[in-house]
Structure formats: structure tokens, C-alpha cells
What we know:
A: six-stranded mixed β-sheet, six-stranded mixed β-sheet, 25 strands, 18% helix, B: alpha/beta, three-stranded parallel β-sheet
Amino acid sequence: xxxxxxxxHVKDIVFGRETTFKEGILTVNEKEAIEAxxxxxxxxxxxxxxxxxxxxxxxxxIKDIVEARMRPDGRAVFPGYTGGMERSGxxxxxxxxxxxxxxxxxxxxxxxxxxxxxxxxxGLTHFSKLIHLCFTxxxxxxxxxxxxxxxxxxxYRLGAHLLAEYIGRAVxxxxxxxxxxxxxAATTSSELPRTALVLQVSAAMGEGLVTRLYxxxxxxxxxPMLHANEILDGALCGDTLFFGSMKxxxxxxQNLPLIKELYAEHGKSLNFAAVFLDVNPPxxxxxxxxxxxxxxxxxxxxxxxxxxxxxxxxxxxIDFFTTIIKLEEEGIKCVGHCMESPGHGGGMQSxxxxxxxxxxxxSTGADHVILNLPAKERIVGHLGTIGRDPYPGAxxxxxxxGPSLHEDGSLVIDSLMIxxxxxxxxxxxxxxxxx
Amino acid sequence: xxxKEIERAGIDVVHVANMxxxxxxxxxxxxxxxxxxxxxxxxxxxxxxxQRQQRYNLMSRALEILNTDxxxxxxxx
Amino acid sequence: xxxxxxYLNQFYGGVGGEEKADYEPELVEGxxxxxxxxxxxxxxxxxxxxxxxxxxxxxxxxxxxLDKIGELLEGVEFDLLAAGPAFMSGRYGVSCAEVCNxxxxxxxKPTVTCMYEENPGRELCQQxxxxxxxxxxxxxxxxxxDLKQMTNLSDKLMxxxxxxxxxxxxxFPRGFRWQIVLPxxxxxxxxxxxxxxxxxxxxDYHTELPISVEEKIPIAPPRDGAKSRVAxxxxxxxxxxxxxxxxxxxxxxxxGRYDLSGQTVLKPGEWKSVxxxxxxxxxxxxxxxxxxxxxxxxxxxxxxxxxxHPWFYTTTGNQTNRVNSVRMAKEIVEYLKADNVDVxxxxxx
Lengths: 435, 77, 349
């Protein structure tokens, strides 16, 4: 399968009369953009804001982060979601690099997050390096915000993808500045070990909350095999269930570092043969079934080696360990890729399950770190969601830390709040050490 | 972790848990597989009457396991 | 200038060999043997007192020995305890561990000891924030190097400098994990592919998450429930509706203990789940999905359970650290032993 991503580097975004891209400057017609992201009027009070890296700014609550793209042949950028169902992963697609489209809501739930554009918390996530074209909005139907903990955020999430597709059209008719080519057939060698990526998606519970595969909820998913190109090309879209620090946003799937690094070795030290999606159902037999399915597919595909990725804590760690153990039993050499949960004191067992057969693991760092953050001059969204709403990393009151939100706007929070903190797609330059 | 400490103190334990892999990895010896994480003691889709019977059967099974001779950590389905 | 107390056994304290192993604790002003060298090497402090105690006395009269040390230190101000190095001497290593544990608990002062990796004292020494066991040599020939290592760590502790990870500083990992930030280009994706290439090629690689095998508990022989005293303990997070003991939804440090005497069922509306790791609504609607009281009562009535302990113990198991788990279990065991309970049915989420 051959996918060519044509890149346009966005140096800045401004508002103007016409949505265009010229000499690195993206100009956005606000009215048109808002219409594009809100076609059925399910959102109200929609406004656009541009936020730059290094700016004294804080964005929250974030619902999803998406790279703006367009497909010259007219197919939907996110097949099955923003348009008709067609296979992704081959042909040409254009991408606007250095920026992202970010949906910001009114109320926060379990999967929501915050992003600082400067300071300590900015240094902990890859998302602070992008220019964000944010939209803030409210749901027209208040019942959309009813469920306190788990919010589906359907209109915000769809809006982000529609806006990304609208913005992508700014480069229509132009020639990309550079091409990234993902063509596995070109360099496959029969000599090299066949290697798979096992990527855990969010499928633990709840219609409307989980990762989307071609626009459909992955909730009942039995692990499928995908081509890496499909993932880079819009087949997977972000969930709103896993904590915002650890989950994969649509932007992460579109730019997945683990896929890119495996491709870089393709035909040199390994053959990048397949991606298997792993899941995380809350029932032991379904977990075992999923791990067995992956082992069977790996056997059928003659896989020799695999990188296995864990993207959430709690019982998702069981899927991670079980899958590695099943693959190792098949003689497949595995490297795990996961965050650790040693807790604020650093003394908790890092994973709920441990097994010595899992002998090669990359640690992306600790998922709970207390951060004391100063107030920001600019707030995009709603600071008042902190302490009021059930973010995973903020609280109304804590006996040790007091309230998360102080009167002067400064914060004491857990890194669970920080969008992209754990870098589970392969971004993380953090690691846990033993003390 | 707690299971092991209680057992270390000389009190016999039957660990009823759905995630038996975790139970095994923390060192429980007699492990009985429960229904699911949110509803350990019965099938959450069953009627109340059936759930009552399932709970009874599960606890009866726990007592059987307590009285079963095992040589290594064992998961009973 | 910071003040250091050093602990030595009878041999290194210059009292004598095995024949003096029953030597009772003595507090010597200033330095003796290894404490002379340590004191000279320290930049930030000096050894003001040396405690000398026979290894045999510490082993056979641990409590008396520690009490005596407490007495001797009455009114003495100090900033750090150094003990050893104990090399491969098991009894000396255990003594150092006992003294470190005692001093840390009683005075909340940092402790630094040193021993060889196979010394049994390692297991005994508590794992706490400012308690360190420096990786030492297996015999006295390594004395100078071991003291140097102890000095480096002690100086850092007394200066209040950040102590880096175990490998870097040369101490044994204590079960803590903290994250550090690597150079930007060392992404986890690159590291993963590098490690995989090494693993494929059969080259050495070093996992970033070391996994040690858990110690196993001997398997108990079969036991008849009809002749047993049975209790139910759960980490499923079920608590009375108003959560009177404020059991948290995760990272629990407390358990609840609730009297079920005379009750045959748990009623919806009177109980709820506070477990933060799963959908709680099912247990809220039917608490007995988490705690099967009706079944246990029926089995008691039928004589299949000899006696059902009237209290139900409950906490949340998710993200609870090892130290708290062990402590809570020990506290629960106290209650259970007081009622001669011999069987626990343990329910988890």
C-alpha cells in the first residue's frame, strides 16, 4: 500500500476574508469555518481562537485535537466519519503541519484535558509545540452535558474533524512543500524479521465514548489487523473515555511516531508487516479472547517481532501483559511500550500486573505527577471547569493539596490533566527510573 | 497484595476476582474467577433471581476450592 | 557543620572479634575505626558519636539493644545516621538494617548504610524516602570505596541536594519509581525500535521497567468451610451510602469495617461503590454484586460455613500502594485473629 502525505508548513494563522494558505500563512474566514464545523447547529456560541506555542495561555477543557488535512481526489479525510466509507491509506493526502484544530467545550468529563502553551506543563507534552486553531462552543441540547463523568462530546468531536477538513481545503490546487511516502511494498525484503505493531485502542466501555475505527465505535471490537497507512490516514479517530493525558487523539493517530519509526527501519532491519489493534474489555474472557486473536493473527502473518503499546492504566494493563505473554509464547520477540503508575509518592507497584516474561519494556514515564502551575494571562475555554467538573486530575478539595484552582488562577493539579502528557503514541522523552 | 498478607498471617484465602491474571501475579494461591469487574459476584445482565442463585453458587464454589488440595497457584473457572 | 552518628559492630568498633559478639551498645564520643575515615571524607559534616554494638547482642536482644541505643542518644542532636559498611556479614547487615529502621522511625533522620547485594540485611531494611543502602563490596578490602560511596550520598543528603536514581547514585533501588526527562530526541518510539532491533539480533538490551518475581506464599492444605470461621474482605469499594470513613475512589490508605450482625441482605440505597476503576452503577443498584451477603448467610444457615464473622472489611484496590496494602491487611488480620477467623473469602473488582 502506498500513501503519500504532502506537507504544507504553517508558520502562522490569521483571520481574514477568505480561507487561504499562502507563503506559510493560513488565513481563516471565521464565519465559513464555524458553519463548516457546526453544520446541523448542534453547537452554539461557537468562536474561533488562535493560540501560539510559547504564549502565556491555557486551553481547557479540550475534547479532541486533529491535524488539518485534505484529499485532492475528494474522498473524505476521515472515511466513515466525516464522509462515506472508503478505504484509507493509499493515494495522496495533504497535511497542514505545525498546527492543529482543537475542540474546547463548556463542561469537562473523564476524557477531557488542559494544555498550557508555556511553562513547565508545556514542556511535558508534544501538543504545546503546535499552533492551535481552537473553537470554543456550548452544546445546544443541555442533556449532552448531563452525564457527569463520561461525556460523549459527539458534536465537539465531529466539529473538530469537520473543521480540520475545512481548513485542509485551504491548500487546494497548491503543490506540497515536501512529501512523506509510506510504501511498504517498495522495500520489503524476504530476509528481514516480520514485525508488527500492537496498538491498544480505547474500547473499555460505552457507546459514543471510545476510539472510532472508520467512524464506528470500537466498543465491541474484536482485534482486527490494519495496515499502518490506514492509521496514518484517518482510519482511527480519538476517544473521549481514557484520561486526556494518556489517550491517543486523532492527531496522534495521524502522526503516530511508533509507526513512523518502524517505517524508518522497514527494509533495513525489519519488515513492518502489520498493525493489530488491541482492546480492553472489562471481562477476563474477552481480554483473553482478544490476546489470543492477536496471537493467531501474528502466527498466520508469520510475525517474528512486535512492539506492543499500552495506552491506559488500570485493567487495560492486563490486556497489555496478556498479549505480550501470548505473543512470546508463540516465539515472537516483543517490546512493550507503556507508562507507569507509581503514584504521587512513587511507591506504588508500577503496573497492576507484572510478569517476568515481559522482559523488554519502554517506559514513557509516570502517569501521576503533581504540578504547581502559575496563572495564565489568556484562558481559552473555561478555567471554572477545574474543581467543578470531574476531570481526572483536578479536584474541588484535597486534604493534602487543597483546591486545584486558586483564587489568583494558579493551579495544583495532577498531570492526568495535561493533554498528551504520557506520549503513548511514542512521543514521550520521559522515562521512570528506580529510586 | 492484601490477599498475600492475609495468607501470610496464616488465614486461608480464596480470592474471588474476574482478573485472575492479576490475582495470580500478586501471588494468590486459590483463585476463583468472578463474573466481571463491575459485577464480580453475578452476571450483571441476569435477572435478580438468577443473580441470587449465581452468588450462592459462586460462594459454594469458593468453599469447595478451599477444601481442594492444590500443588501450585490455581485458577478455578 | 552537620552532625553524623555512625553505627559499627564490635569488630569494626575495635572491641573484639566473635568472642565479643555479645557486647552491649556503647556510645563513644568522636570516631573509631571506619568512622574516622568517614568523618574525614565528609564535606558537609563530622561524625560526633560512634555507636558500637555486638552483632550477637543485636541479633538475640534486638529490642533491648535498640532501646539502649535510644537511651544513649537521649539529648544528642544529629542530622544523619551512617551504619556499616557490613560487606557480606549477614549479622552485621541485619544489625545495620535494624538500627537504620529504628533511628529513622524514632528521629525521622536520614540513614545511610552499605552492604553487599546478597547480604540478608538488605531485605530487612525498610524502604522509605530518606533511607538508603549503598551497594557495597563483599569484604573488607572494599572498605575505602564503600565509605567513599556512603560519604557522597551522606553529603548530598545533608546539603539537601536532589538524590538521583539508584543506578546513578550507587544505592539499591527501594521500590520507588520517578520519572525523569530525557533529551528531546530520545522519544519512546525511537527507544522502542532500538530495543526491538537488539532483541531481534540477540544483543543485550536493558528493559526500562525491571520486573522482579514476587515471593510466593506456601499453599495451605484443604480446609472444610463447615468447620471454619469465615470472613469476607473486599477491595471492590462497596461502602455505606454516606461513606462514613471517607474511603477514597483510588489510592486508598484506609479500609472500612461494617457490622452486618442480624442482616441477611445488603439493600440498594444503603450501600454504594466508590471504586474509581469501573462503572459503579451496577453495584449501586445491587450491592450484593460486590458483597454476596445473602449467599453467605444461606451457606451459614445450611451449615456449609461454620461461622460467619459479623464484620465486613472493605476498601478500594485500585492504585493502592504496596506499603498501604500491606499495612491495611495487617490491621484487618488483627481484627480477624481476635475473632479466631481462619478463612477469608476475598472479593476484588
